[in-house]
Amino acid sequence: MMTAEPGTLGLTRLTEHHIDVQGASPIKHKMRRMSPPMLQVAHDEVKKMLAEGVIEPSASSWSSAPVIVKKADGSNRFCIDYRDLNKVTKKDAYPVQNIDAILDKLRRARYITTIDLKSAYFQIAMEESSKKYTAFAVPGAGLFQFTRLAFGLTNAPMTFQRLIDALFGPECEPFVFGYLDDIVIVTETFEQHLVWLEKVLERLNSAGLTINRKKVRVLPVERQVPRVRARRRWPARRQGQGRTGDELPGAHRLEELTTFS
């Protein structure tokens, strides 16, 4: 089974992220002061990303500023301020999923599974010539650049959609689609659902992608989506609570549907 343990990020070669700055001069942000606690957060994140192969030391003439933002649960998120880089980046016209089309699929579905890719963007390679544009500096640590698709880049959603379309072509419509960084499976029957669940997991494995098992929601009883309340027919332990990938009964456990290396 694919896991989401530290150091087990997948890496697919189905697509890469390209940045075209249209001949713009290098952008170099001034290094921002950080309080000692926030600086420690930044250093810890740099160490983690280096260990996972997400970033590497850089000699780039570009440098965007890191920022630490508070998440809703009070924890910290390490981000890079790519707004100036995004201004000079040529925009990608590749189409992403239309919300109305997604809602139509949800209306027809009786069974839904959402599969969370472990740090989805970090499983997509950054094109070699584009890495230098993603560089960022951390006081006391140095200058680094992303080897994987960085969050906050203007064309990141389009690159992710390219990956989804390469994985699940027209033959998977209307049963499988991507939304944000999730993969969604929708079917009218339970038998269909098991078939498509296995197909999706097999394709993810073949593409070298890993999933976060704890965030896989299998056949939730009820899901709130914009303008739609879709009721699902699955006996959850409590009303409104879905099941995770580790909670499927009997032969329907994810690891019994397919085995991953």
UniProtKB/TrEMBL annotation:
PROSITE patterns: RT_POL. CDD domains: RT_LTR. It comes from the Eukaryota. Residues 49-239 form the Reverse transcriptase domain. This is Reverse transcriptase domain-containing protein. Pfam families: RVT_1. It comes from Trichogramma brassicae. GO terms for biological process: DNA biosynthetic process.
